[in-house]
Structure formats: C-alpha cells, structure tokens
C-alpha cells in the first residue's frame, strides 16, 4: 500500500479522534460551578474525565443509592463540591487509572492480576478518602465545640438571643468546619426558615452524635422555655469530658498498637544481635 495514502488515513483518523475527544469534553466535561465549592484536589486534576463518566454512567445511581451517597457527602462537607454522580464518576476514573498503574507496575506474567488489583483499589480509594475526611472533619468539630459553646453561653447570659449568640461565636472563633455549618444555620434563619427547623436540619445533615445531642438540648430548651445558659454550659462540659476520654483511650491503645512492630521487627533484630555471638562461640567449641 502507498505510504502516502497510509499517512493520510492515519492523520485523518487521528484528527477525527481528536475532534471527537474535544467534542466529548465540550459537551460532557464541564459542570455548573456558579454556586458550587471547589472540588477536592484529586477530582480537580481529572475534572473533565470525572464529569464525562458522571454524565455517562450517572443513571446507575438512582433512589436509595443516590440518597445514601448524598448523605455521606453531606457528612463530609462535600455536598456543594461534588454531586453523587460526580463522585461515582470519580470512582470509575479511579478504576481506570488504578488498572493502568497496576498493569504498569506488574511483571510480564502478572499483567492481568496487577490490572485487576489496581482497578479495585482505584475504585475503592474515593470511598476510603471520603470516610477518612469525614473522621478528620468530625474530630475538628469535636475539638472546636467547647470553646464555641463557651462563647455562645457567655453571649446568651449577657442578654443576646440564640441567633445573636451563634453569630457572635462565629465572629470570635477560628474558621473551621463547625463554623461553616453554623454559618449555614444562620443563613437559613436569615432566609426565613424557623430556627428550630434550621437546627434540626443541622443535626440531620451532619449525623454526628455531639451535634445531635446539642441540637436536641437546644430544641428542648426552646420548646420548654427554659434558660439556655445552663444547658449550653452542661453541653460544653460534656464535650470537654469526651475530648479527655478520647485522649485517654488513645493513650491506652498506644501500647497495644506497639506490640505488632515490636514482635515483627524489633524483637527479631534484638534476638539476632544477642544470639549471634553465642551461636559463634558454640560453633567454635564444636557444639
């Protein structure tokens, strides 16, 4: 076959493929970002591919699966950064990237195994990251709650109502996930939502025991007409107690966690150092 014809056909095929990819990215690779937060770093690097797979395979998320994934994104504070479809698209992108990386790192006879293991890890990694991010966020909220509740208590005892006390606490506390959630409650209240309903939405959105306990106490105090100062002070003391208990638990778990490295790595090296001279002496004496 004429080399010139082959080159023309190859160039035409490449141009058509490039145009198809460009159209695919233009049609499906974008997403509405006017009211959305910035996506996480890993998703941001592969954003066009994430949106392409989200728009292509998003129909697989329907009903309970979509609602469950949306609840997880809310708990992690990623509700306005990722939709459930985009998160699912990120899992598919992770599967493909993990499969390619696994095949690249595998040997000649284990390409298929490497691709399968890498693909499974890539598919599961976004869920692992979301779970770890939720735990870190909840820990940051637990650490910030005592000081936040102290400010709210002082503000209420000084004569402010609950909404004004929450706003004062937001102004005085350091930025963090707790301040983001309280700011959202204040925006809901300013938009016309009843305060008790906004607080209940906060508890449902976060699904975190300390926040649920605080909201329950505030709602009960509001409904009963009792003073909120003692209630908030008791909540602050309870949060501090939980922090100390968590620190004590981690301190007691440390020796148990050290047993594995000690038995697997440190003890064998110690026995080797001690036993080698003894073994040499036995061998030299003919035993």
Automatic annotation (TrEMBL):
Segments traversing the membrane: 82-105, 111-130, 259-280
Bilayer topology annotation: Multi-pass membrane protein
UniProt subcellular location: Cell membrane
InterPro entries xref list: T2SS_GspF_dom, T2SS_GspF_sf
Keyword Transport: no
Limits of the Type II secretion system protein GspF domain: 148-274
Pfam families in the cross-refs: T2SSF (PF00482)
Superkingdom of source: Bacteria
Alphabetical keyword list: Cell membrane, Membrane, Transmembrane, Transmembrane helix
Keyword presence, Aminoacyl-tRNA synthetase: no
UniProt protein name: Type II secretion system protein GspF domain-containing protein
